[in-house]
Amino acid sequence: MSIEYMGLSRINGPLIVLEGVRDAAYDEIVEIVVNRTEHKLGRIIEIYEDKAIIQVFEGTDGMSLNNTHTRLTGRPMEVTLSPDILGRTFNGIGQPIDGLGDIISNLRRDVNGQPLNPVTREYPRNYIRTGISAIDGLTTLIRGQKLPIFSGNGLPHDRLAAQIVQQASLGGDTDEKFAIVFAAMGVKYDVSEFFRRTFAESGVSSHVVMFLNLANDPVVERLITPKVALTAAEYLAFELGMHILVILTDMTSYAEAMREVSSSKGEIPSRKGFPGYLYSELATIYERAGIVQGVNGSVTQLPILTMPNDDITHPIPDLTGYITEGQIVLDRELNGQSIYPPINVLPSLSRLMKDGIGEGYTRADHQDVANQLFSSYAKVGDARALASVIGEDELSPIDKKYLEFGKAFESRFVGQGEDENRTIEQTLNIGWELLKILPREELDRIDTKLLDQYYPEASEAPADGSTHA
Amino acid sequence: MLKTGLIYGINGPVITVKGNPGFSMAEMVYVGSQNLVGEVIALSSGMTTIQVYEETSGIRPGDKVTGTGGPISVTLAPGILNNIFDGIERPLSEIAKTGGAYISRGVSVDSLNRTKLWETQITVKKGDYVYPGTILACVPETPSIVHKVMVPPNLSGTLIDVVPDGSYTIDDTLAVLRRKDGTEVKLTMAQKWPIRVPRPYAKRFPASRPLITGQRILDTFFPIARGGTAAVPGGFGTGKTMTQHQIAKWSDADIIVYIGCGERGNEMTQVLEDFSKLTDPKSGHPLMARTTLIANTSNMPVAAREASIYTGITLAEYYRDMGYHVAIMADSTSRWAEALRELSGRLEEMPAEEGFPAYLASRLSAFYERAGVVQNLNQTEGSVSIIGAVSPQGGDFSEPVTQNTKRFVRCFWGLDKSLSYARHFPAINWLTSYSEYLSDLAPWYAEHVDKNFVDCRNQLMSLLNQESSLMEIVKLIGSDVLPDDQKLVLEIARVIRLGFLQQNAFHPDDTCVPMEKQMKMMQTSLYLYKKSKTLVTMGMPVSVLKEEKIFEHIIAIKYDVPNNKLEMFDEYKKEIDSFYDRVIEKNA
């Protein structure tokens, strides 16, 4: 029987201070009973001799300096795992909330995980077809990648993530086991309900594990939610050999919870009040994506974060971009023009794309077409800026072509239906059709041989763009 | 008797020990029952502060801290090359053998293989008087590199015993040295050196020859000298890592030390895979044979990230002492600076700019000053060049790490977001970048490449600058209103940008371009400019010139002329001449 400590010496926001503890370890989990009825969990985040500073996941409401009993568990934060977690719903710290009872298993894992040894990683090369042209064509998602969606409030990032889940799960390798781990940190009830409904409608509910910390749930709890979710994902991927797509939404709420706790601790803030260790903390989450040599499964991460005030230089998207392998950036202006998905391709990027596309993976012309589309679309911006000054009529013929290309690119390549699932062939063919709006000399990023194949000299753009067939 | 203390408090990677157990500053200590590695970073009469290089979860107040009596050091011996280490020189492949896919805590593995037998050729004999740095033996460490076993920098004396040539491990005694005071020291292949102390050298030379990288914008426009320092700042996605990879692959340094400091795990895996497969154009052996990797990825403990930079440079200095030219890629120094900030915050130090500690600038300068071309203690010449990536917050170059780095490096390759958006790679902005080495290196270029090299380079640069000021006008009123000589400048600048500055890292010929070809490409572009300018002064409009497609041909030289067929450039000259004649004929 372990010792229970009665009372506390201090309560400050989500933090409590317990004095006179013996044998407490750093990062250990404690159980707190308030008024002999309410159970809470806390984690020791600082310790000085016999004084422990504890962060309470469920918040400190209702606690007083003398109505609590605290017990040390002797373990770091752990989560119970078994294959039965598929299809279940948990709260932010991994306790079932779907009324189906506890997970019965002897397997418990430390949620903090451990860093993957770079030597045992396998470099990701297999692409995931999402059926969305802007992603498949220009920012290809690779199995084992971490590719966040940078969005803003009111932009359709949830619909985009849901579409990726629906279409990617129906991808080529149907015999391989596929599952989704969904972690919500501080999102609205409607958002979590939207995802639940989408999973149900696409018939994948039995392959989804949900961890929900909603906007009205305790703030500190969401600090542990992504770690619990990723521990579950790693278990499913590396021990059960499944391909896991992890959706983390919204990383902004996670970072803000960290700031809240940090300021209650009285730490020295760095940028915009966030603690100096924001980068390291985000890294321990994002770096848990990947593939391990000799294991079948993979963990692919699709974190969603809303950029405060659409500012990509805000610390959260900024540090995220330095850790993740690219980003998909949504754009308010495109959204205003009713283009779905409103992906602004210029700042979007997939770092792993170059090794997962081309001959043997997608199609030989993929890289060149993507480069050319990027480069040509960048010129559209210049032409538009000029047009806004001197008027469209005054533009040179080639600049007018670029305007035409830009419009078509946005409406036909980027824009597509919410249930439109394009093949890679379709995507690339649309790309060629659009490039044919421009004169052949302007296409300086494409190998001459490929140009001859898809855009023969002295040929006008055929209406259907299927010259290579 | 080792000194011990008891833990009082724990806050992340920082732990405090009550009282004064007698540890010294920067001493390496073992923490807790798992023997986590730590380092003493502050001392007061009542409290000792220690940073721990591993995750501190589960450590308790009252656990024991044991001193080792010496500072954090690396083991220097054969086996460093073709290997991958974490931030404190623990071999990751050995950790994987014992610990599986994850890096567990408190792993105790030797830095280098202690049982492997190395073919050793002794180069000294009994009775020789040896000085610090004297080469005792040569060991073929990899197919590319001969490792030279040296007398440690603090020893000199007479050799009273020397073993014959043969196979030895790094712990076997190769020679016994008697010092002046009569004490005897056994010399092995291995020596230890504290990572925060620069290794000594005899004297330093000024920079005089470039580190050739095969990257046109670097070699021609903003060269870095052997023994020089360069910073590559850029927001995410602008190609810092790609630039570093290209230099690591193709530069003419003898040895590459690649430090992945707080970066992505997959990137290190990629370097490991790529460098094992690619062959070094100079030696024909795999690139890994001349490379060592230090991988402290972003999710590995933050204190070890801080140390990884020093570990890397100490390894580099060791090979420099053997007479090699070493280049260090540090990707990224911002992560290292953030590690400083994080630890400084845990120590509750007074922050300076943006939360960074006030000693950021002095730490940065101390690091970059470890670069240089030197005469070693053993009279050989070696160099360490440092190329540090900087990841400025929000891509804003006015932040403290970029600004302070700029003060201590002489080469600045600023990466540009708008260039990378347009997929112009390498996305090095030619207007904001600079190299202070250009004038130092001009004699070398004149002697080894062409006497007009610097002149051509300056002409190209001037055209690009003219383009940039013309573009200001074009943005306001369009290019149609410009006079024809200015339109020609825009056209030639386009040829330079697409044909010369843009370089395709995935193209077999274009990924690394020899200096001769770079020179010929410059000359050809300038020749085209000269001829076209004559035509324009004769009254030919630029639109007429453009009909000839000659500009596209010159742009495609980078792909069309293989690196070993430079005689093809004569044909391009003829082509320009005939283009000139044709235009005159048609429009006479």
Give an overview in words.
- Chain A is of the alpha/beta class and 469 residues long.
- Helix content of chain A is 32%, strand content 20%.
- Chain A has helices at residues 133-138, 157-168, 189-201, 225-239, 251-264, 278-286, 315-323, 332-336, 353-356, 366-390, 397-414, 424-435, 448-454; strands at residues 4-6, 10-12, 15-19, 29-34, 38-48, 51-56, 68-72, 78-80, 89-91, 108-110, 127-128, 141-142, 149-151, 178-187, 208-214, 243-249, 298-306, 326-329, 349-350.
- In chain A, the strands form four sheets. In chain A, strands 9-15-14-16-17-13-18-19 form an eight-stranded mixed β-sheet, sandwiched between helices. A seven-stranded antiparallel β-sheet of chain A has the order 1-7-4-5-6-3-2, with no helix packed on it. In chain A, strands 8-10 form a two-stranded antiparallel sheet.
- In chain A, helix 2 packs parallel to helix 3 (189-201) and helix 6 packs across helix 7 (315-323).
- In chain B, strand 1 and strand 2 (14-18) form a beta hairpin.
- The N and C termini of chain B lie far apart (97 Å).
- The mean pLDDT of chain B is 92.
- The chains are: A alpha/beta (469), B alpha+beta (588).
- Chains A and B meet through strand 5, helix 6, helix 7 and helix 10 of A and strand 1, helix 1, helix 4, helix 6 and helix 9 of B.
- Strand 5 of chain A pairs antiparallel with strand 1 (4-11) of chain B, so a sheet runs across the interface.
Largest interface: A-B, 86 and 82 residues
Query: Which class best fits the helix and strand makeup of chain A?
Result: alpha/beta
How much of the sequence of chain B is in beta strands?
A: 15-25%
Q: Average pLDDT value of chain B? A: 92
Measured by DSSP, the beta-strand proportion of chain A falls in 15-25%
Dominant shape of chain A: elongated
Provide a count of the helices of chain B: 17
Low-confidence stretches of chain B: none
Distance between the termini of chain A: 75 Å
Uncertain runs of chain A are 460-469
